[in-house]
Amino acid sequence: MMDRYIYEDGLETERLFTRFLVPEDVKAWSDFFADPEALEFFPFVEPAPNEVRAKNWIEKQLTRYREHRYGLQALIDKKTGEMVGQCGLLAQDIDGKIEVEVGYSLLKKFWGKGYAREAAIRFKEYGFAPTRRNPLFPSSTSIMSAPKKWRRKTGCPAASRSCGGI
């Protein structure tokens, strides 16, 4: 699918580090599916108990890792060790062409603290930075399902999936 597949965890920001998701993350991620406001920006919601939704979502990310389609990673607060949310690169088939996006979701109690922007910028640097010796992808990225307020703050047009300057 990709000419070269490199995807690492252990990325760091000032407050966060990333790690690949594991099945044990289901309990922490079940809270995400319990919040209707968080699900407003989620691509799909299956009719199932929250723990089943979380299990299926994490299994989907594990499958993405195995199939070399990247996937979301756990965002962990460096000070507390608590999961803040998920962020990562996602390979999507858009009209027969593979495009890579930066996607994210945060647990509601961490909204409004700058974690989404911090993590998205770090993943953009990791995957798209033109200053990298061997950038993984071209220099533009898109933001999946970004809330309008967040898109305005980062300069991303509401009607567009593309946002080259997070």
Widest sheet: strand order?
1-2-3-4
Number of strands: 4
What would you report as the Rg, rounded to the nearest angstrom?
15 Å
Largest sheet report? 4 strands, antiparallel
**Which regions have little confidence, pLDDT < 50, spanning 5+ residues?**
139-145, 154-166
Helix amount, in percent?
25-40%
Task: Give the domain tally.
Answer: 1
Walk me through this protein's architecture.
The structure is a single chain. The protein is of the alpha+beta class and 166 residues long. The chain has a single domain, classed as Gcn5-related N-acetyltransferase (GNAT) (Aminopeptidase), CATH 3.40.630. Helix content is 30%, strand content 21%. It contains five helices and four strands, in the order βαααβββαα. The chain has helices at 26-33, 36-39, 50-66, 115-128, 148-154, and strands spanning 16-20, 70-77, 83-94, 97-106. A hairpin with a 2-residue loop joins β3 and β4. The protein is globular.
How would you summarize this macromolecular structure in one to three sentences?
The chain has 166 residues and is α+β, with helices and mostly antiparallel strands.
Fold blueprint:
Layout: E1 16-20, H1 26-33, H2 36-39, H3 50-66, E2 70-77, E3 83-94, E4 97-106, H4 115-128, H5 148-154
